[in-house]
Amino acid sequence: GQQQQNQQNKQQQNQQNQQNQQQNQQGAAGNNQQRQ
User: Fold this and answer.
1) HSE-up (13 A, CA, CB side) for residue 15
2) CA 33 → CA 11, 14, 29, distances in Å?
3) pTM
């Protein structure tokens, strides 16, 4: 029902956030390498 849908949405949002954080870290590392 609705509760299960909410739980799935939360899990998807968490996964998306984690992926975004990883991409941000990789992007920052790439920028640092270029500046050196």
Assistant:
1) 6
2) 33, 29, 6
3) 0.66
